[in-house]
Amino acid sequence: MSEGTMQRRAQRDDQQRAERATRTGGLNRVVAAALAVPVMVLAGACSSDSGSDSGSGDGTQGAATASEGAASAAPTVQAAAYAALPDSCRTLSKKTLKDLVPKGGTSGKEGTSSDTAARASCSWSSLDNNGVDGSQFRWLNVSLLRFESDQAGGTGEAQARTYYAKQVKDAQNVSGAKNTKSEPLAGTGDEATVVRYDLKKKEGAFKQQTVVALVENVVVTLDYNGAGLAGDETPKAETLTTAAKKAAKEVVASVRSANGEGTGVGSGVGGDTASKSPAPSASPSKTSPAAPSETPAEGASKSAVAKS
Fold it and tell me: Which of 21, 65, 92, 235 has the most crowded CB, counting CB atoms within 10 A?
């Protein structure tokens, strides 16, 4: 082989080795780059996840902080003024009871209540001569309803005022009532109304007087009626109204006394009315609305029938 041929082969071999080295180097760089991509992606994903977790935690914490701030900023309802009711059967003096129910004694019949600090009632009735040869019938009922303040219903005073208006309206719209008259009563609680009407029953002609009084967060409803039975003359409405007004003032005084204001005059069985110490209302709680008291003339009629 000639020297020139050998030289050309050597040059070709050198060139081929250089090309292979170039190709190998390029491939190695491609492989290295391919291997580096997942590492970068993984690192980016970890970094992204870490940031996401941190953001999520901050958002939850921020929401909780906002919620706590809103709760603390929620307005509170002013506590009701009165937290107690007097013994319903001791809201009237012995003298008043003898005047209004002369043959009924001073012991009243207490109404059923699951919470006497929120609602209570007591009634008295009298029938002289047992209905023989004409007799006079009297029926008296005192109902007390106290409202507590709460977020849903508002202040106890506002709830009591709403119920007061309802009681007055109910008294003014009794089915079968005739000659209905209403008038405000001064000096009896924060506000008071007297409603009177005539109601004809099979036992006789009844003269009904209803006094509704509002005192702070308590509503007082006093029902008083009379009738002449078995031919006896019907009592005068004016006489019954005067007696009912006097009695309502005593009941209101008893409510105030039970909450440490003034001295109650009521004492159906002797002694003073309930507690003398002030009893400001505690933390607000819901008081369930009570149904209006029994229609007075209906209760009176039942009692009259039972005793006649």
Answer: 92
Q: Which two tokens stand for residue 136?
A: 């006079």
The confidence score (pLDDT) of residue 95 equals 95
Q: Rounded to an integer, what distance in angstroms lies between the CA atom of residue 64 and that of residue 109?
A: 55
Q: What is the pLDDT of residues 213-226, one digit of tens each?
A: 999 999 999 999 99
- Do the bridges between strand 218-229 and strand 109-110 make them parallel or antiparallel, or are there none, so unpaired? unpaired
Count Cα neighbours of 229 within 13 Å in the Cβ-side half-sphere.
24
Q: Which helix (H) or strand (E) holds 277?
A: none
> 211 near 196, Cβ under 8 Å?
no
Q: Fill in the DSSP letter of residue 148.
A: -
In 3D space, the residue among 158, 156, 144 whose CA is nearest the CA of residue 82 turns out to be 156
Specify the length of the chain in residues: 308
3-state secondary structure of 261: coil
Q: Which helix (H) or strand (E) holds 92?
A: none
How far is Cα 194 from Cα 198, in angstroms, rounded to an integer?
A: 14
**Mean of the pLDDT values across residues 126-145?**
85
Global pTM?
0.67
Question: 172 and 161 in contact (C-beta within 8 Å)?
Answer: no
Ranked by mean pLDDT, which of 56-65, 166-175, 255-264 comes out on top? Answer: 166-175
Name residue 212's amino acid.
V
Task: Name the β-bridge partners of 215.
Answer: 218
For residue 35, give the amino acid letter.
L
To 10 degrees, the CA torsion angle through 289, 295, 298, 303? Answer: 60
CA 106 – CA 101 distance, rounded (Å): 8
CB-based contact 261:197 (threshold 8 Å): no
Most confident range (mean pLDDT) of 43-52, 60-69, 189-198, 255-264 is 189-198
Mean pLDDT of the chain: 76
